């Protein structure tokens, strides 16, 4: 079991480690007043639930206009152990099965992306049998990491994840398999292709049509996913003409 505090490790790194370890079980996140639970199968995040009432299926369907308030309240009265809201609405003919599938998968994806906003709290990865769910996500873990980091607007987190203008990045030889699990837009793909050899952040920013914030945030995501590696920082030569090297993260 892996556990720790989100003040010490970013959610993106936790998710990627779970994917790399091909863990099966649950990832639990908790902070005062809120709990998230993510079902994991062989490293893939396939379902999620939240204690936040706004993350429930009913409000999602209501916001979409898929059901009326009367239909939602009537269906809620029929809830019982083993009987879920979506199934009741489908049985009543008030919701199409395909709309239920889309709503449930969007609900799970939304909860997972919300988790990336957490910067405090505790996480715990529990290995064991993954609970069975009739409707599950079909999104790769690298894609969820990319999508999750793309929702982060805090420069302090992006800067910490990406590094400074002089931070250098290099391609990872085994990154092709990960690349095939992603859907990149044209500009993200161009940024990745531009890292054919070690390059610093400043030159990558200069060559990309993305604004510099987007470049830094995307580099952070590429690093966490494993498409590129962040090279050790270097310092000026010492008195013997040798270059000081500071290990990454020192």
Q: What can you tell me about this protein's structure?
A:
With 250 residues, the chain is an alpha+beta fold. It is built from eleven helices and ten strands. The protein has helices at 11-21, 57-64, 69-77, 85-91, 97-115, 141-149, 155-162, 176-179, 186-193, 201-207, 212-225, and strands spanning 2-5, 25-31, 34-41, 44-50, 122-127, 168-171, 199-200, 228-230, 233-237, 243-246. Helix 6 packs antiparallel against helix 11 (212-225). It starts with a strand and ends with a strand. The relative contact order is 0.14. The model has no long low-confidence stretch (mean pLDDT 91).
Provide a short characterization of the protein structure:
The chain has 250 residues and is an alpha+beta fold.
List keywords for this structure.
about 250 residues; alpha+beta; five-stranded antiparallel beta sheet; three-stranded antiparallel beta sheet; 11 helices; 10 strands; about 40% helix
How many distinct folded domains? Answer: 2
Largest sheet: 5 strands, antiparallel
> Pairing-aware structural class of the strands and helices?
alpha+beta
Strand order of the largest sheet: 1-5-2-3-4
Helix content: 40-55%
Q: What's the gyration radius in Å?
A: 21 Å
Distance between the termini: 26 Å
Number of helical segments with 4 or more residues: 11
What is the percentage of strand-forming residues? 15-25%
Overall number of strands? 10
Dominant shape = elongated
SSE order, one letter for each helix or strand: EHEEEHHHHEHHEHHEHHEEE
- Ranges where pLDDT stays below 50 over 5 or more residues in a row are none
Mean residue pLDDT: 91
